[in-house]
Amino acid sequence: MSYSTQTSSQSETWAATADLTTLRQKLLDLFCQLAYQEGDFVLSSGQRSSYYINGKQVTLHPQGATAIARLLLPLLPANTQAVAGLTLGADPIVSAVSVVSVYENQPIPALIIRKETKGHGTMAYIEGPTLPAGANVVVLEDVVTTGQSAMKAVGRLRDAGYTVDRVIALVDRQQGGAEFYQSVGLNFEAIFTIKDLQEHYREIN
């Protein structure tokens, strides 16, 4: 399913107006229609898979980004001072959460973690506002497989003096990521599991 560029109707404003239960269901629809594919794929972890989730098809979708932000905000602890994630997958997620947080009257800045240090200027790994030492930061991720990608962001943030004890993902592939986070003392939750996506994908196809 491709994205329509036609002028939005009232029915297309659901991401901004629906209750959270409806929002989650409609976001699941988007993931199954736009992001989930079956075939033969090699993942960033090097593992082979019979399916692939291209999360950016949803995180860069206007309704998708808004719905994601509205669903993630209530999951953030009250003491959250920023959201952050490893580029590129987390960039639209942390940006959407930061923007929507203003409308929810709880403005939260976003940080983007580079995979390699910036090659000029400040040579920084972390882009975004400088926070107080010890600031509480939640790491966001689109799809978790082994958990290593988000762990890179956790490490960079801790090296910068921030406190990180939680990772939240859009989709948990249930291939060891949750267990890995538990083993290193991180809290972890996901909006969807791969089982949620696969069951719904088969229902609508």
Index terms:
alpha/beta; Rossmann fold; two-stranded antiparallel sheet; 8 helices; magnesium ion binding; EC 2.4.2.10; orotate phosphoribosyltransferase activity
Question: Can you walk me through this structure?
Answer:
It catalyses: orotidine 5'-phosphate + diphosphate = orotate + 5-phospho-alpha-D-ribose 1-diphosphate. Homodimer. Catalyzes the transfer of a ribosyl phosphate group from 5-phosphoribose 1-diphosphate to orotate, leading to the formation of orotidine monophosphate (OMP). Belongs to the purine/pyrimidine phosphoribosyltransferase family. PyrE subfamily. The structure is a single chain. The protein has 205 residues and is α/β, with parallel strands linked by helices. It has a single domain (10-204), classed as Rossmann fold (3-Layer(aba) Sandwich). Helices cover 38% and strands 22% of the residues. The strands form two sheets. A six-stranded mixed beta sheet has the order 5-4-3-6-7-8, with helices on both faces. The protein has a two-stranded antiparallel sheet with strand order 1-2. Helix 2 packs across helix 4. The longest helix is centred in the N-terminal third of the chain and has 16 residues, at 20-35. It is globular and about 50 Å long. The relative contact order is 0.14. Residues 6-10 have low confidence and may be disordered.
